[in-house]
Design goal:
By secondary structure, this protein is α/β, with parallel strands linked by helices. The chain is built from five helices and six strands; from the N terminus they run E-E-E-E-H-H-E-H-H-E-H. The longest helix has 14 residues, at about 50-60.
Length: about 180
């Protein structure tokens, strides 16, 4: 059984999902792939300790603190490949960005391969079921394009600005997957 609750944030209403002990989802309202990793209907239950801990984490994050991801028990549902990509996302420092290509290089090493497709990595990043906490908003195109955020490019920019990231070399593409 899965449970959900709501959280009002500066980037819009967030839906949190749990298996009762661990966080399995966090989606921005109208996010692409909303609830995609939770196969069953969710029952509203705001009284779970994991939701209290997650809301406290989000309160700290949105007040400008840098709460540690490791402080929350996360259980995103996905393939081993996707989970490995999401683990790499958790290593991106607050206020910094990396590229899909850089993550692809790390994944190639992890898989003992010469090369890994940045597009494959982009698919895994885009399907991250725990937005904001697993910081997929910190991933940009190799040319500096702000693309690929399932929550929308405007939310990606707001989150990066909130973290004080240097946006001077980044741009919104004329067309792309986040638009």
């Amino acid at each position: 059984m899965f449970y959900s609750t709501q959280y009002s944030s500066p980037v819009g209403n967030l839906t949190l999902a749990s298996d009762s002990e661990r966080l399995v989802g966090l989606w921005i309202q109208n996010q692409k792939y909303f609830g995609g990793t939770v196969a069953k209907n969710m029952t509203e239950n705001s009284n779970l300790p994991i939701f209290t801990a997650t809301k406290n984490w989000l309160d700290k994050y949105f007040s400008g603190q840098k709460p540690a991801i490791a402080n929350l028990p996360l259980a995103p549902n996905g393939s081993a490949f996707r989970k490995a990509v999401w683990d790499i996302l958790c290593e991106i420092p607050y206020g910094e960005v990396t590229t899909y290509g850089e993550i692809a290089k790390k994944m190639a090493v992890w898989r003992n391969q010469e090369h890994m497709s940045a597009q494959a990595v982009g698919g895994a990043v885009g399907h991250n079921p725990i937005s904001i906490i697993i910081p997929c908003h910190r991933v940009v195109g190799s040319n500096g394009s702000l693309t690929g955020y399932a929550g929308g490019v405007d939310q990606k920019i707001r989150l990066l600005e909130h973290e004080g990231a240097d946006l001077s070399k980044l741009f919104i593409p004329a067309k792309g997957t986040a638009l």
